[in-house]
Inverse folding.
DNA sequence: CGCTAATCTAGAACAAGTTTCAGACTTGCT
DNA sequence: AGCAAGTCTGAAACTTGTTCTAGATTAGCG
């Protein structure tokens, strides 16, 4: 998991055929766009991110915006990648300090959760985009998924997880996303999300335990 | 968990503040709309369900369609309610026959999964609508959620679940929805979904065990 | 039956995502 | 510098969800 360059396709040549090496001004444009997107999302959530407004706020033409991000969903998923990166960096600086893996994962996720709570509208926009994404966004969504997996594995302190453990991690991710959605749409309280996260984290002990029997 | 009519606006006055007792022709219209919706969804998924086309196929004016279902999301969530009802009925006729609760739940969910596999476009439309729904659709989404919970509890054979068990069921639902999405968007194979379902179902043993000790 | 309120219809109009296009600007190359 | 290819801009057009309006139809009721 190399930090820095972002869709670390350094060795896996599968996903993007070729990120065509942006010039400096292009990189700047890209960042302005992502910034505008996050800003608008923070205000009013998914619907407040209107392509015309993003373009204007970023100082680019609408056509250019669409050249960089082929749809609103792509844009918001990219925004989520961006935010997750920040989170991952932050978490690396202060790793969770629980006794066992399950505790550390639960603590990590709840920390992430509180970060999202501070910008509920932004969270709304990103998560809605993520789950609404169709096949055309699969590579980008997959990147987000890998990032999330990396964060969880970090918390578990695992280098070489077994397939069983990977499955547990996937289930934790499922729960995380879905719980987030129910919270965002007001159908679950934060307390309930906490309980669900803690519940699913028990799977970690379950997959770690039998191994040593 | 009362069995019987499920959308039962007829007598159970719980969910909707006042379903204003539709006339026969109105009931017929409503059914034509839902039918048209499912039909179009079966063909081309979420995007193929276009409100003008639904209205035309159902033989109602666009304004009428919006009177019955205030948005495309409402319409598709209602469609999902409808389909879940069918599923629930079917499952009741042939309950799963596993030895322990976890097995039965996993089998039930995989059966539901195979049913959805037969109409992947329909599944796509319904699930995307469900997870994209915002607060304005909360009551309807909640109904779907309760239906799903009922199906799982049925499979477990529980009448009076403990809070702990309810939490496990919620986590299973989270996993179910999210796994469905990853499959629909082509990011996970059916085999992987099966593994994830089985993994999360282990939580059932975990919450059932301590209780009876 | 005849009245009134509610519902339904056809169609225009509006909103926001997406596409398109002609012309201006950059970039890379020789 | 000068040219070719690619990129960016501004604006209009197109699509589909949603809203609105005026007039026709229907339902409930005396």
């Amino acid at each position: 998991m190399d930090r820095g360059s972002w869709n670390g396709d350094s060795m896996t040549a599968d996903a993007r055929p070729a990120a065509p090496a942006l010039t400096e001004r292009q990189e700047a444009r890209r960042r302005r766009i992502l910034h505008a997107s996050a800003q608008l999302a923070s205000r009013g959530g998914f619907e407040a991110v209107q392509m015309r407004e993003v373009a204007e706020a970023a100082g680019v033409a609408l056509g250019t915006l669409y050249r960089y991000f082929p749809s609103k969903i792509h844009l918001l998923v990219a925004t989520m990648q961006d935010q997750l990166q920040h989170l991952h960096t932050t978490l690396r600086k202060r790793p969770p300090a629980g006794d066992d893996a399950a505790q550390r994962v639960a603590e990590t996720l709840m920390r992430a959760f509180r970060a999202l709570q501070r910008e509920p509208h932004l969270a709304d926009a990103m998560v809605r985009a993520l789950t609404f994404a169709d096949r055309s966004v699969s590579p980008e969504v997959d990147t987000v998924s890998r990032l999330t997996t990396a964060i969880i594995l970090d918390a578990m302190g695992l280098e070489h997880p077994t397939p069983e453990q990977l499955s547990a991690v996937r289930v934790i991710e499922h729960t995380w996303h879905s719980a987030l959605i129910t919270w965002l749409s007001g159908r679950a309280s934060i307390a309930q999300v906490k309980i669900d996260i803690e519940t699913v984290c028990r799977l970690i002990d379950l997959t770690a335990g039998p191994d040593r029997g």
In short: The interface with chain A takes residues 46, 124, 128, 131-135, 137-138, 141-142, 145, 164, 167-168, 170-171, 173-175, 177-179, 181-182, 185-187, 192, 195-196, 199-200, 202-203, 206-207 of chain B (CB under 8 Å). The two ends of chain B are 27 Å apart (CA to CA). Residues 26, 29, 60-64, 67 of chain B lie near DNA strand C (CB under 10 Å from a C1').
